[in-house]
Amino acid sequence: xxxxxxxxxxxxxxxxxxxxxxxxxxxxxxxxxxxxxxxxxxxxxxxxxxxxxxxxxxxxxxxxxxxxxxxxxxxxxxxxxxxxxxxxxxxxxxxxxxxxxxxxxxxxxxxxxxxxxxxxxx
Length: 122
Known about the structure:
alpha+beta, four-stranded antiparallel β-sheet, 3 helices, 9 strands, about 15% helix
């Protein structure tokens, strides 16, 4: 992932990757686990996500605070998203100071990998 000129990457945490498919309880535990990388993000930044071609082939979905940000898995290796929606409050009011962002790798409708970041608003 790249924000501005800063790039970070992460691997799936221990117990958060299984090509045979993760159990639902494992996915929940992995999504709630502490993120490996904290990334400082301004509301006007553009966030660039890049995944290995194998992950893209399988498909990947972004989760924001554990909730899917889209309906269908993304199948490309690279995408760019504005930062402000990550921090927005759907009920109105103030924006969040930090959000947990998860890249959920899927294959044939089962989760096989969970990759975690925390975005901290600056």
